């Protein structure tokens, strides 16, 4: 039996007390009233962290000068290269001969990188994947709730398109969104062919669920470990292709460009020795993921340990424009208690199956499947201005996610079956989520914007492609759940094919080097940027690395 600590017990009891009434309302088809469009906008403006003025500043240099981005990111984009590289550049030294050469260098070993590497190799290219940690250590494996694909009769890519555009406040690039939704059904078939196991009915029909802000049920899941299962089949496929080699523990720290301004490889820095390795490539695919581990505004994060914006740093130095980076995704329900899991996800699939968000009195204050930015803003208001959050002795506050509701609605056994990962994880910590609600607060989850790309993952630099969370334009100012797992595969596969074509037709790069850094370094010097401000950061550092 679960015993909650004293400071949670009274409030958790209120959740139990109001459950019968909430269930009865649900059975009558009544839901908590959704906000009007104008109320949504006002709520977000007032309470969402994207609108905290002291959390952002305009970029003072580079291709997207004046773009407003989180201050922590601005400080990394306007930072010096790692010291050995800065010295090479300042001394105008010739780079040592390459340690390795390949047709395509894929930087990043998560879902987007794997999808790109697989399709490039299948198109005949020799591919090297380089990853900061191990293959698969990425936000892909952290994704729990599922992937959106419009494949059922009552749905269509057109409907999916409208949801993505609306969820992003009509700020997404329509051509990218069209590509996303149109490629979806093909990606689903591809994953099944690779052996990915999805939740299905005994008839073999795919189970689909609602996510926040979706007009149709189109979320396809593998229990609550969808990203992990996806990564399993991607890594297996990559391992089967002998034209793919993998370099673990070798994060890229600088791109190489050639005399014609084309991408030509990268410099890698081995962890932990710090040894630099030069890789020449005919084309480069950037698949480095996001920036959650920058802990913007002090928020906890659901992200994996290596999510430190390295790709944005390298791309920006190489002159590439960025977009939509002011807008970050704070997943409404990150863990508050137990503290050792703080910031990790309580998947939106819980809410897709009926779990409700409640304040300390056990009352609903927001429709649980509003788009994420709306739900997040409502929780921040409830805990802050309205003082209706549950407070922990350490000062953290949170709201309840009434997970036991799910078994009341769908029958006993549903929680265990649909959430095998979280069910076991919490049981090990003495919390039976069939019996007790869990405490949640928004957690930094996803980088909505990034490097500007075209539909085939091409960037503004010849030979440089980008896919996955490092890119911008698909989700605009706000992503709906389940579109990240789809995006990494749609654009990863496209980038792989396009890069293989480029590599096959473009010959060797001429004099790969880091000449593109020279004007950047001059600007840093002119702005008197402190020399201790260094990027990429590679790892979060926690207490050891100062945040400049
Ligand atoms: O797309 C996501 O961010 C996702 C599926 C998260 C989740 O709540 O599980």
Please name the defining characteristics of this protein.
single chain; 548 residues; alpha/beta; FAD/NAD(P)-binding domain; five-stranded antiparallel beta sheet; 19 strands; 35% helix; disordered C terminus; binds (2E)-2-methylbut-2-enedioic acid
Q: What would CATH call the homologous superfamily of the largest domain?
A: FAD/NAD(P)-binding domain
Q: Enumerate the distinct ligands.
A: (2E)-2-methylbut-2-enedioic acid
Q: Termini, distance in Å?
A: 47 Å
CATH class of the largest domain: Alpha Beta
What name does CATH use for the topology of the largest domain?
FAD/NAD(P)-binding domain
Rg over CA atoms: 23 Å
Helix content: 25-40%
Q: Which term fits the overall shape?
A: globular
Q: Detail the poorly predicted runs.
A: 544-548
- Total strands: the figure is 19
Helix and strand topology:
Layout: H1 6-27, H2 37-47, E1 56-58, E2 68-70, H3 71-77, H4 83-90, E3 100-107, H5 111-122, E4 127-130, H6 139-142, E5 147-148, H7 157-167, H8 174-194, E6 219-220, H9 226-240, E7 244-247, E8 252-257, E9 263-269, E10 276-286, H10 310-317, E11 322-323, E12 328-337, H11 348-352, E13 356-358, H12 372-383, E14 390-391, E15 397-402, H13 405-410, H14 414-418, H15 420-428, E16 438-447, E17 450-452, E18 464-466, E19 471-472, H16 483-506, H17 517-526
Parallel strand pairs: 3-4, 3-10, 4-7, 10-18, 17-19
Antiparallel strand pairs: 1-2, 5-6, 8-9, 9-10, 11-17, 12-16, 13-15, 14-15, 15-16
Helix pairs in contact: 2-12, 5-9, 5-16, 7-8, 8-16
The chain binds (2E)-2-methylbut-2-enedioic acid (MEZ).
Residues 143-146, 345, 347-349, 481-482, 484 line the site of (2E)-2-methylbut-2-enedioic acid (MEZ).
